[in-house]
Write a structure and sequence with these properties.
about 325 residues, alpha+beta, 8 helices, 14 strands
Amino acid sequence: MHQYPELIDRLADGRFHSGQELGQLLNISRSAVWKKLQQIKQVYNLEIDAVTGRGYRLREPLDLLNQDTILQLLSNEGLEQLPPLHLHASIDSTNGWLMQRAGMGVNSGSVCLAEQQLAGKGRHGRRWISPFGRNIYLSMLWYFELPPMQMAGLSLASAIAVLRLLHQLNCSEAGLKWPNDIVWQNKKLAGLLLEITGEASGPSHVVIGVGLNTWLGAQGDAIDQPWVDLNAIPHIVPHTRNELASKLILHLRDVIQQYQANGLTSFIDEWQQHDLLLGKDVVIRSHSQSHRGEHVGIDSSGAIRIRSKGHEQVFHAGEVSLRKEVGEKS
């Protein structure tokens, strides 16, 4: 936290704290505490209750991210070379922050995390709802010798990294929706956005951005598609957001190294095992037209294969969106 670290940290437990206690913490007057809390409510969109005689509390407790904790968890998992980790209270976009620094000496493997994104986005420019202190907003930068044109399959491989994490949490019903959505019972649980830059013949700078819903609450009402968060899924293994972040970093690194060695080919069987629309009738929509057919898998570049009237076509993720055919059973 940059602007109000101690105040938000102290209130994160969701319990009442007196104005006197908070004033002593920051060495300011009680009236100055009240003013700072009003600023926190406005800047971070947090609900703070004030009760005479009891003090102030966050209406919902927060499980805040901690840089040292995440690095320690990574070290405990045996990661010898810890990645540069950049943690922000509030930022426009974790992807954007890393993209601005790609090629400027920022190390491959660098990770950017935020408690809140002000301009987070998904595919096709959709806004990604990013309430403060909730969910995981994480981006990782990686340098590849490959040219950008050969990086398309990494998007699908990265989705497998998120799925592996969810299965580790006992979220066994989570599955994949091409090209890079993670879905639970027809509701979006996580999404990815990859941004790639580089020379036509290589190398490439790739930023892998992951948004994972852990607890959305009332702010989920602003989302324009069916969604779910980990908080609503039964039998999930207990976890903190710091644990989720560290495990996600490890899974992403594993997938990247596997992709560097063998490309998307080594992921196709795993992808298709968890592809929720495989074998179903689907609609592929581009700006100008729709294509209907049976989803029969993905190819080695990550394109989706659609069969209609005995004829197979392939479509690439940047051009189109995928929907299940209306009337098709899950």
